[in-house]
C-alpha cells in the first residue's frame, strides 16, 4: 500500500474502541495495539515526531493497516493480548510464557480425591490455582491431609461396588489417614462435609474450619473424651499456625487482585498478589521486554489482562498504583493509606526484589549485558551523545588551606579502574582557590593525555557547582577540547547536576543507578584526594622539624625515625642514645638543636 492509500485509510478509520494491526511490505504483522479511539490512536503514529528511534523505524516499515472494532475497552485488551501471543509481532512487548503451572484438583467423583496436577481436564472437577510453585501446593496438601482424612486410592467407589464388598481397606486406613469409605466405614455426607471445608481452605478461608473444630473439641472435653479432644486441638494448632503465616493484612480485604510495576529502559516487572479472606493465596511477577517506548500504564494494562487470564482470576476489584483503563466491569482502587496501601507497597517491594534478583543473575551469567544496560541507561539519563564507557571525576582537597591537592579517579564500564587514578599537587595556585586549582589539574590531565595520544574519556564529572564547572571548561577551551568531551558538575547539597551553558540543573531519581554511579565516582575521588592530602600533611608534620637542623639529611632522618619511632622521642633522647644511632657529630647537632635555649 502506498503513502496515499495509507493516508486515505487513516481518514476513514472509525472513532470506536478496537484493535489495530500494522503489516510490513511482506504482509507480516509487526505490531498490534489497542485503542479507545482507533482514529486518534493510529493517526498519532503518523502525525507526531517520535523521540524513540524504534518507533520511528516501526512507522517507516508500516505498509498496511488492519483493524477490528470491539464493543468495550475490556474486549480490546483481551483481543490485543491474544493476538500478541499468537503472532509475536516484532515490535510488541514479549508476553510469551510456555510454563504449565500446577493446580490442586478436587475430582468430580463419589468420595472426591484431592491432589496436585499440571493438566486441567474439563470433566466437571474443581481446579484451584494455578500456583506459581509446588512448594505452596505441598504445604497446602500436607495441611489438608493433616486435618482431614481423605482417600488416596483411585478406585471407583460407586454405591453398588461398595455394597458388593469389592474393596478392602488399605494401609492408609490402619495408619489413620483414611476412614475407609471403600468398605462403607465413612458416609458420603460426612466425607462431603470435609470436602466443603477443604474447598474453603483452598480459597483462603480458615474461619469455618476453626469454628467447627473448636466446637468438636469442647464437645469431646465435655464428654471426658480427652484423647479425642487433644487430636482435634492439634488440628486447630495446624490451621492457626498456617493461617498466621499466610495472613499479613486486614482479613476484611477479600477477593482482590493487587498489581504494581517497576520498570527500567528495557524491561517492565509487574507483580501480582491475589488476596482472599485477608491472606495472600497467590503471588507472581511477570517480566516484560519492552520493544518501543511503552509507558508503565500501557505495560500494566497489558500485564493485568494477561495475568488474570493465565490465573483465571474472577476478582471484581483490583488495587493499582495509578489509574488504568480496564473496562467498566472492574472496580479500580488506587490506595492512599492504611492496609490497602500497605499491601500495594508489599507488591511493589516484591517487583523491586525480583528486578534486583534478575540483575544479579544477569551480572553473573551475562556481565556484558549488565554493563551494556547500565551504559545505555546513563547515556539516556545524562542526555549524552555516546555511552560513557570511560568516565573521569575530579575533586580538590585543601583542608585548612594547606597543601592543596587534587584527585582524578577513573571508571571504565561503570567500575573503578584504580591503575588509572592520578594525584595532583597544585603548583601554580597560591592559597586555597578551588576554581583556579580545578582549572590547573584539568588542563594538566588532558594536556598530557593529548600529548601522549591516550584515549580521552566520554564524560568528565567535576565535584562542585557552576564555579568549578566553569573553571574546568576554561581548561578544555585552552586545549581545544570543548565539545569533544561531555562534562558535568555535581553539587553536594542537593545532588544537582550542572551542564555547560544551562542555568537549570538536572535532578535524577535518588534511587537511579546513574546517580549511584556518579555518587560512587564523587565519593571515590573525595576519598582518594583526602588520602593524598593526609599523607602530605603527615609527612610534613613528621619531617619539618628535623629537616631544619643544618647537616641532617633525609637518610639520617629515616634512621632516627626507624629507631625512635617519633620526633618527640628524638627531641627527648640523650646525647649518648643519639650517638649510638647516628654518630657523635650528627648526634651533637640534633641534641644542641633541642636543648640549646
Automatic annotation (TrEMBL):
<dbReference type="InterPro" id="IPR036876">
    <property type="entry name" value="UVR_dom_sf"/>
</dbReference>
<feature type="domain" description="GIY-YIG">
    <location>
        <begin position="15"/>
        <end position="93"/>
    </location>
</feature>
<comment type="subunit">
    <text>Interacts with UvrB in an incision complex.</text>
</comment>
<dbReference type="Pfam" id="PF08459">
    <property type="entry name" value="UvrC_RNaseH_dom"/>
</dbReference>
<dbReference type="InterPro" id="IPR004791">
    <property type="entry name" value="UvrC"/>
</dbReference>
<dbReference type="InterPro" id="IPR038476">
    <property type="entry name" value="UvrC_RNase_H_dom_sf"/>
</dbReference>
<comment type="function">
    <text>The UvrABC repair system catalyzes the recognition and processing of DNA lesions. UvrC both incises the 5' and 3' sides of the lesion. The N-terminal half is responsible for the 3' incision and the C-terminal half is responsible for the 5' incision.</text>
</comment>
<feature type="domain" description="UvrC family homology region profile">
    <location>
        <begin position="287"/>
        <end position="476"/>
    </location>
</feature>
<protein>
    <recommendedName>
        <fullName>UvrABC system protein C</fullName>
    </recommendedName>
</protein>
<keyword id="KW-0963">Cytoplasm</keyword>
<dbReference type="InterPro" id="IPR001162">
    <property type="entry name" value="UvrC_RNase_H_dom"/>
</dbReference>
<keyword id="KW-0228">DNA excision</keyword>
<dbReference type="InterPro" id="IPR000305">
    <property type="entry name" value="GIY-YIG_endonuc"/>
</dbReference>
<keyword id="KW-0227">DNA damage</keyword>
<comment type="similarity">
    <text>Belongs to the UvrC family.</text>
</comment>
<dbReference type="Pfam" id="PF01541">
    <property type="entry name" value="GIY-YIG"/>
</dbReference>
<dbReference type="Pfam" id="PF22920">
    <property type="entry name" value="UvrC_RNaseH"/>
</dbReference>
<dbReference type="InterPro" id="IPR050066">
    <property type="entry name" value="UvrABC_protein_C"/>
</dbReference>
<dbReference type="InterPro" id="IPR010994">
    <property type="entry name" value="RuvA_2-like"/>
</dbReference>
<keyword id="KW-0234">DNA repair</keyword>
<dbReference type="Pfam" id="PF14520">
    <property type="entry name" value="HHH_5"/>
</dbReference>
<dbReference type="InterPro" id="IPR047296">
    <property type="entry name" value="GIY-YIG_UvrC_Cho"/>
</dbReference>
<keyword id="KW-0267">Excision nuclease</keyword>
<keyword id="KW-0742">SOS response</keyword>
<dbReference type="InterPro" id="IPR035901">
    <property type="entry name" value="GIY-YIG_endonuc_sf"/>
</dbReference>
Amino acid at each position: 500500500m502506498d503513502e496515499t492509500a495509507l493516508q486515505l485509510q487513516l481518514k476513514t478509520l472509525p472513532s470506536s474502541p478496537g484493535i489495530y494491526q500494522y503489516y510490513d511490505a511482506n504482509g507480516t504483522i509487526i505490531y498490534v495495539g489497542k485503542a479507545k479511539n482507533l482514529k486518534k490512536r493510529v493517526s498519532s503514529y503518523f502525525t507526531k515526531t517520535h523521540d524513540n528511534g524504534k518507533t520511528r523505524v516501526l512507522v517507516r516499515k508500516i505498509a498496511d493497516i488492519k483493524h477490528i472494532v470491539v464493543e468495550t475497552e475490556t474486549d480490546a485488551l483481551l483481543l490485543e493480548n491474544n493476538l500478541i501471543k499468537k503472532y509475536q509481532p516484532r515490535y510488541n512487548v514479549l508476553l510469551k510464557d510456555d510454563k504449565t503451572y500446577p493446580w490442586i484438583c478436587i475430582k468430580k467423583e463419589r468420595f472426591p480425591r484431592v491432589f496436585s496436577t499440571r493438566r486441567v481436564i474439563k470433566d466437571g472437577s474443581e481446579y484451584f490455582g494455578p500456583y506459581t510453585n509446588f512448594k505452596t501446593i505441598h504445604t497446602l496438601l500436607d495441611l489438608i491431609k493433616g486435618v482431614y482424612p481423605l482417600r488416596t486410592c483411585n478406585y471407583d467407589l460407586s454405591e453398588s461396588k461398595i455394597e458388593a464388598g469389592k474393596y478392602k481397606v488399605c494401609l492408609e486406613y490402619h495408619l489413620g489417614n483414611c476412614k475407609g469409605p471403600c468398605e462403607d466405614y465413612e458416609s458420603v455426607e460426612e466425607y462431603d462435609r470435609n470436602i466443603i471445608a477443604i474447598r474453603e481452605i483452598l480459597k483462603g478461608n480458615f474461619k469455618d474450619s476453626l469454628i467447627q473444630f473448636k466446637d468438636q473439641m469442647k464437645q469431646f472435653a465435655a464428654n471426658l473424651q480427652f484423647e479425642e479432644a487433644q487430636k482435634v486441638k492439634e488440628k486447630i494448632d495446624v490451621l492457626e499456625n498456617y493461617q498466621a503465616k499466610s495472613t499479613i493484612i486486614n482479613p476484611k480485604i477479600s477477593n482482590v487482585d493487587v498489581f504494581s510495576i517497576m520498570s527500567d529502559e528495557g524491561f517492565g516487572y509487574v507483580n501480582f498478589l491475589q488476596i482472599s479472606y485477608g491472606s495472600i493465596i497467590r503471588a507472581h511477577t511477570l517480566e516484560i521486554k519492552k520493544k518501543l517506548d511503552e509507558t508503565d500504564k500501557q505495560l500494566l494494562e497489558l500485564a493485568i489482562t494477561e495475568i488474570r487470564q493465565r490465573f483465571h482470576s474472577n476478582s471484581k476489584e483490583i488495587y493499582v498504583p495509578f489509574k488504568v483503563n480496564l473496562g467498566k466491569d472492574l472496580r479500580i482502587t488506587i490506595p492512599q493509606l492504611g492496609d490497602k496501601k500497605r499491601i500495594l507497597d508489599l507488591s511493589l517491594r516484591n517487583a523491586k526484589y525480583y528486578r534486583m534478583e534478575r540483575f544479579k543473575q544477569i551480572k553473573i551469567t551475562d556481565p556484558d549485558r549488565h554493563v551494556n544496560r547500565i551504559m545505555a541507561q546513563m547515556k539516556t539519563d545524562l542526555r549524552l551523545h555516546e555511552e560513557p564507557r570511560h568516565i573521569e571525576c575530579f575533586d580538590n582537597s585543601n583542608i585548612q588551606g594547606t597543601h592543596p591537592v587534587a584527585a582524578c579517579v577513573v571508571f571504565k564500564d561503570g567500575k573503578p579502574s584504580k591503575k588509572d587514578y592520578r594525584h595532583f599537587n597544585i603548583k601554580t595556585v597560591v592559597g586555597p582557590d578551588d576554581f583556579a586549582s580545578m582549572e590547573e589539574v584539568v588542563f594538566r590531565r588532558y594536556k598530557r593525555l593529548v600529548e601522549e595520544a591516550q584515549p580521552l574519556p566520554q564524560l568528565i564529572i567535576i565535584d562542585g557547582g557552576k564555579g568549578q564547572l566553569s573553571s574546568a571548561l576554561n581548561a578544555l577551551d585552552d586545549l581545544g577540547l570543548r565539545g569533544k568531551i561531555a562534562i558535568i558538575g555535581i553539587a553536594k547539597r542537593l545532588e544537582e547536576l550542572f551542564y555547560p551553558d544551562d542555568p537549570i540543573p538536572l535532578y535524577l531519581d535518588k534511587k537511579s543507578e546513574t546517580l549511584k554511579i556518579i555518587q560512587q565516582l564523587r565519593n571515590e575521588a573525595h576519598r582518594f584526594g583526602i588520602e593524598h592530602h593526609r599523607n602530605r600533611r603527615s609527612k610534613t608534620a613528621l619531617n619539618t622539624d628535623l629537616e631544619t637542623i643544618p647537616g641532617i639529611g633525609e637518610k639520617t632522618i629515616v634512621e632516627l625515625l626507624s629507631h625512635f619511632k617519633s620526633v618527640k622521642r628524638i627531641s627527648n633522647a640523650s646525647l649518648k642514645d643519639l650517638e649510638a644511632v647516628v654518630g657523635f657529630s650528627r648526634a651533637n647537632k640534633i641534641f644542641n638543636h633541642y636543648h640549646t635555649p
